Amino acid sequence: MLVAKKHRLAIDNNMLKSRLVCESHVKDRLSSELKKMKDKASKQKGTRVGMVRNEGVPNNVFVCAIVSVVVSFIVMKLCG
Fold first, then answer.
1. For residue 52, which of 41, 42, 61 has the smallest C-alpha distance?
2. For residues 79 and 72, what is the distance between their CA atoms, to the nearest angstrom?
3. Residue 58 to residues 2, 8, 19, 62, 65: CA-CA distances in angstroms?
4. How far apart are CA 59 and CA 71, in angstroms?
């Protein structure tokens, strides 16, 4: 009975050790990914000066279209 309990505890111990190793591996991987993302963000901040961001292009087109319609409406009311 004691041998079986010792064997069960040894298996539980090995499982916990392997889980700990797995979690530490995940932690290291995530920290390296975070570092890469921070480095990439800092590099992009340095090269973004004078460049158009791709995310804002649809918004800019939408705003330009609205401004164009409003200006056209005002010109038609004044001249027409």
1. 61
2. 10
3. 71, 62, 47, 6, 11
4. 18
Q: Rounded to the nearest 10 degrees, how much is the dihedral formed by the CA atoms of 16, 21, 22, 26?
A: 140
What is the pTM for the complete model shown?
0.47
Residue 57 phi, psi (nearest 5): -65, -50
Token pair 């921070």 is found at 38
DSSP character at residue 50: T
Q: Which amino acid is at 35?
A: K
Determine the distance from the C-alpha atom of residue 6 to the mean position of all C-alpha atoms in its chain, rounded to a whole number. 46
Give the pLDDT confidence of 17-71 residue by residue, as tens digits: 999 999 999 999 999 999 999 998 888 876 655 555 555 567 788 888 888 888 8
State the average pLDDT over residues 2-20: 93
